[in-house]
Amino acid sequence: VASPAYTELEVAMMDWLGKLLDLPEEFLNCSEGPGGGVIQGSASETTFVALLAAKEKSVRDIRKFHPELSEAEIKGKLVAYSSNQSNSSVEKAGLLGSMPMRLLPSDEKGQLRGETLLEAIQKDKEQGLIPCYVVANLGTTPTCSFDKLEELGPICQKENIWLHVDAAYAGTAFSCPEYRYLMKGVEYAHSFNFNPHKWMLVNFDCSAMWVKDAKYLVEAFNVERIYLQDQHKGLAPEYRHWQISLGRRFRALKLWFVLRIYGVEGIQKHVRGQIALAKHFEDLVRADPRFEVCSSNMGLVCFRLRGDDGLTVTLLEKILERKNIYVIAGHFQNYHVIRFAICSRLTEKKHIDYAWNEFCSQANEIVGINKYETKAEKKLPTIQIDNARCQKITDNEKSK
Ligand code: PLP
């Protein structure tokens, strides 16, 4: 009632965006069902909001069959799960929501697998605990790995656990059909999130969240007051019940601008261009026997100097001291790695070459120019999305 235009534009933009990513129809505001999208401030906020909704849902579901149990008794038994590769914000959501967050081991590709989740759930159930919430990653922070949603989804469905998908960074890639196979199983999710403010050219802050049934948010967050009442109930989503704050920003407007300026093809071109730049960087690293690539997914390449971890730590220190490029540290299978992420829409091949020269000049000082005559045996398996498969999908799309 205070600003119908911004609610209307947010409803429309979340549908445009949902269609851009080819999300299941049930997530869209325009679908027949109770689903819809809302813009939150951050992925952290969204993971927390979904956890609170999951918590309320569990309490209601369990009390239907066990009315003798108090709300406090049930809440004290709820547990959540994610992988040890998930972003710090996932653990934080558990902290804020007073729900233990089990960070389960990922496999050698950095993916959370169904059998690992199932084992953890069974163990907790044997202890009388109640599994409530799972956060699956599509694009982990350390290496941009993709959890096996099609394995996690059916388990969550069977165990009546809320499945939240954190695709904060990599979600933008689903605007390209060739990457959508990585979100296979998304139909099992209760909520899905990605940040247009990360990779989709929208200024901070803009975090897109979809739920299959908005009722769970409203049940968790609805607090009425006389000064909040109006005569138009049910005509549009009351977004104040879908979030923590009462007041709202007009974030849909900047989304509208970006979608109108770039269009679907413009966004796809941006994503493909950045992935191609990352591939160029990866090729440069692979061609130098002093280095090894640990993972290369989307716009993120993780690599290290072969040999002792100290070499990579020194390289990173030197690079940061010089302040010509900015990269950060990561861990991969207990090794130190450097995370090289391409983020800016202004990045071109010449900037990648410049960055590579920076690494080479410092590596020359640390290990010398001819450290290896021939390419040494690779020590680490490389995590990589299936480029051949992507190419096939792109070709099919083109021929369509
Ligand atoms: N999830 C993933 C996978 C991320 O990579 C990040 C940030 O890098 C976040 C969540 C947190 O995002 P935000 O700053 O929007 O809370």
From TrEMBL:
Does the record's keyword annotation contain rRNA-binding?
A: no
- What's this protein's name? Aromatic-L-amino-acid decarboxylase-like
Query: What GO cellular component term, any one, is given?
Result: cytoplasm
**UniProt cofactor(s):** pyridoxal 5'-phosphate
Q: Which organism is it from?
A: Asbolus verrucosus
Keywords annotated in UniProt? Lyase, Pyridoxal phosphate
Lineage here is:
Eukaryota, Metazoa, Ecdysozoa, Arthropoda, Hexapoda
UniProt cross-references to SUPFAM superfamilies, sorted A to Z: PLP-dependent transferases
List the Pfam families. Answer: Pyridoxal_deC
- UniProt family annotation: Belongs to the group II decarboxylase family.
Q: Which PANTHER family match?
A: 3,4-DIHYDROXYPHENYLACETALDEHYDE SYNTHASE, GROUP II PYRIDOXAL-5-PHOSPHATE DECARBOXYLASE
A GO BP entry is: carboxylic acid metabolic process
**PROSITE patterns (UniProt xref):** DDC_GAD_HDC_YDC
Modification type N6-(pyridoxal phosphate)lysine: residues: 198
